[in-house]
């Protein structure tokens, strides 16, 4: 098999020889290291879908850490390996690090201190990774892929398979409930929370945005979605809800119900959050609000249904910036005549 790379990656002698002799039927055991929270785990799903397509007979193990157990893609892998971050004994840590045995292929999609140690101690036939520091390529990997902050993370992960000549499906397949624009509810969903509070607007700002949207877009329901954490409640919107019959708060949903709820909605308005990544995974239109995170890493461009609001100087977008972005997106996706007919 040809190594489909010119100057965009790293190959040592082992990696080049492995690619030249690669027969997918001979790959029996694969380990994928991905130590990440909800949003990035959502972005991993297309890679796992395509990995199964490319290596249909392989046993796939996903390795993560105990801190990140929410939204694990158990439906796409054969086994889960967990490094317990609370383990204190040396023998216990060593047992966990050596539990993966000797896979044929190892993908490090994490680039953390733990993932690098696990990569180093796991005697796989070939190891692939995309470290930010290229010095780790020579130390740890046989095949290295360039990592970018300017392309959607889920697509960057697929470069590991493109180097083998694989043709991923587009739009990406997440194996999640899928949004259908023609039958979607006339419902705009707002998720005003983030894992780091500084990455989201203030509650007062969200109240202003939702009230303004409710006044300007009365043909839609406006729903604030509560999160799964205790502090991610919608009580702060009570006055706005009292003033508008078409504004409401959706109590927190479990992950399966949330996927269907999102797929049935018209659009999600949110900052850089795991919930927005779930919306991307269901192909639900999104309006992303960015001022800390680089937007391009979480902004798919292979679909016309996603828009990002941000200022070049990094200032926090104002209420009217967000409303203008929302109205523009809705006008493009749901023309007024089409809305009236639904």
UniProtKB/TrEMBL annotation:
Q: Name one GO biological process term.
A: lipopolysaccharide core region biosynthetic process
Query: Is Transferase one of the keywords UniProt gives this record?
Result: yes
Q: Which GO terms describe its molecular function?
A: ADP-heptose-lipopolysaccharide heptosyltransferase activity
- Give the keywords, sorted: Glycosyltransferase, Transferase
Which top-rank group of organisms is this from?
Bacteria
Q: Which InterPro entries match?
A: Glyco_trans_9 (IPR002201), LPS_LOS_Heptosyltrfase (IPR051199)
A GO cellular component entry from the record: cytosol
What SUPFAM superfamilies has UniProt attached to this entry? UDP-Glycosyltransferase/glycogen phosphorylase (SSF53756)
Protein name, per record: Lipopolysaccharide biosynthesis protein
What organism is this sequence from? Halomonas salipaludis
């Amino acid at each position: 098999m040809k190594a489909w790379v010119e100057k965009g990656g790293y190959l040592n002698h082992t990696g080049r020889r492995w690619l030249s002799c690669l027969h997918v039927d001979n790959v029996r055991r694969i380990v994928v290291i991905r130590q990440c929270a909800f949003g990035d785990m959502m972005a991993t799903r297309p890679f796992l879908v395509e990995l199964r397509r490319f290596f249909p007979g392989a046993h796939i193990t996903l390795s993560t850490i105990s801190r990140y157990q929410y939204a694990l893609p158990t439906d796409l892998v054969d086994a889960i390996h967990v490094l317990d971050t609370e383990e204190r004994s040396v023998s216990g840590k060593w047992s966990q690090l050596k539990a993966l045995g000797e896979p044929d292929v190892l993908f490090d999609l994490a680039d953390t201190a733990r993932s690098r140690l696990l990569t180093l101690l796991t005697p796989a036939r070939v190891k692939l990774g995309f470290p930010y520091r290229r010095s780790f390529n020579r130390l740890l990997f046989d095949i290295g892929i360039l990592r970018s902050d300017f392309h959607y993370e889920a697509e960057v992960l697929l470069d590991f398979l493109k180097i083998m000549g694989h043709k991923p499906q587009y739009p990406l397949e997440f194996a999640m409930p899928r949004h259908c624009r023609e039958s979607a509810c006339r419902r705009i969903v707002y998720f005003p929370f983030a894992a780091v509070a500084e990455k989201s607007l203030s509650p007062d700002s969200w109240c202003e945005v939702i009230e303004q949207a409710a006044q300007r877009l009365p043909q839609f329901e406006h729903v604030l979605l509560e999160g799964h954490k205790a502090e991610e409640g919608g009580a702060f919107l009570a006055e706005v809800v009292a003033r508008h019959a078409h504004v409401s708060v959706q109590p927190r949903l479990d992950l399966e119900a949330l996927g269907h709820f999102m797929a049935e909605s018209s659009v999600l308005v949110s900052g850089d959050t795991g919930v927005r990544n779930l919306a991307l995974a269901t192909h639900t239109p999104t309006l992303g609000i960015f001022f800390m995170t680089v937007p391009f890493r979480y902004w798919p461009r292979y679909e016309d249904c996603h828009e990002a609001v941000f200022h070049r100087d990094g200032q926090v977008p104002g209420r009217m910036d967000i409303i203008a972005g929302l109205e523009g997106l809705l006008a493009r996706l749901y023309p007024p005549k089409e809305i009236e007919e639904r």
